[in-house]
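step 3/5: co-fold with NAP
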Amino acid sequence: MVSRVIPVENFDLVIFGGTGDLARRKILPGLFRRYRSGQMPAEARIVGAARSALDHDAFRQMVAEAVAEFGGPEKDDAECLKAFLAQIHYVAVDAKGEGGWQALSGLMREGVVRAFYFSVAPSLFGDLAERLHRFNIATPDCRIVVEKPFGHDLATARALNATLATHFKETQIYRIDHYLGKETVQNLMAVRFGNILFEPLWNNHYVDHIQVTVAETVGVDGRGGYYDQSGAMRDMVQNHLMQLLCLIAMEPPSRFDADAVRDEKLKVIRALDPVAADEIVRGQYGSGGKAYRDDAENPASTTECFVAIKAHISNWRWAGVPFYLRTGKKMRARSSEIAVVFKDLGHSIFEGDTARHRNILAIRLQPNEGMDLQVTIKEPGPGGMRLVDVPLDMTFAEALGPDAGEVHDAYERLIMDVIRGNQTLFMRGDEVEAAWAWTDPIISGWDARGDRPRPYEAGSAGPEEAMMLMHRDGRRWREIKG
Ligand code: NAP
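step 4/5: write tokens
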């Protein structure tokens, strides 16, 4: 299968925080791959901006090193890298100072899309926004891209939305959640709304429950300071898991466009019930190797690095269907999936068949992006009608041929969407606020009760209490497999 690359318009993209970790690991190597694929126009320009006193060449050297380290198989195309680097510029600016802004203004061209990636601490977003206007760099249709975390709670998210709204219209603001840029996540929408097969079953008549798992093997190495102020609830559930839940649960939008999709997602968040104290488990890895508290540099830290939640959506489609969400660090394997577990057959016509056979649609985000559908068939061979459950496996890279292996990294896909002006895969301000409005009482409930995280062994599937969350409902978590 040959992948179709549709070039985007010519653009100037300024990356504030161009020397930072995210720019080096994701943004710049991703842009190089889009350049090499022909999607980024040859004359498009990328401007790195940060306080460090670099000239264009020193920044280009840094970009070359980032591509060498994180550029994937394409990194060895030296000719292409040389051409790409020629499109890279640098200007030293301080988000809180006055220097460098005139120079940045002078670099910007008329008649091309203007985008500003705020890859800096959120505390600088307001300063950047204000200076982009004061120095006449912002145009009425320029775009800004803002990184997570978008607020620490509802009050700070509201304040951040208000600050950005002073300078930019909502149609100019692209709040990134890179989970929405993952191929499989978009495929979830294609599968739901592009097939007649699933949608009739996608409700409480046929679905028993839904599981969303995002398991990481890494700890918080090197990010202990940030993470300890955040925790899994803020860092993962409020944004990434919430977005996945929305895409599974939302009503079909009337069109595949930004506001139609985001309106439906918002309705899901608003229909979420408050979570009862016994329907949530927090955990902290504490044995079987280094403990979280060593990573967090705070021997008394009570920040959770694991959360499991039983969530309920109060609407006609989902009443009575639990959504079990879990995410954690230092888990058994790096594995993320959404599993739609359908109900048992009411009655089996096959004599002696006492097993519970269930259809399960599993959508894998990592590793091996793809889907499998568990179906029940006859076990081959003699011996009568014995039933067995088998997965109909569709790993994209296998099913769609080698070009599907060029599954774009989420960041590069999303940046191209910014240039196209397509906000479908970005969070709207009201969505983010609604997600915090659901999350805040969970966190304040823990604080009020003095809840301490349950310990779990590094390399396990999380605390015992998380298993019990499902066992007591007669259900089981799916195995975490790498
Ligand atoms: P980082 O490595 O600490 O980089 C911060 C960048 O901001 C550097 O380029 C720094 O360069 C620049 N900077 C700092 N103060 C500045 C100022 N006053 N004016 C202008 N530039 C300034 O941070 P990061 O990990 O790249 O993260 C950037 C943003 O992405 C954060 O909001 C973070 O939460 C978010 N994020 C990061 C990741 C990740 O994997 N790293 C993942 C998700 C979200 P100078 O020191 O030269 O100024």
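step 5/5: annotate
The CA atoms of residues 336 and 365 lie 5 Å apart.
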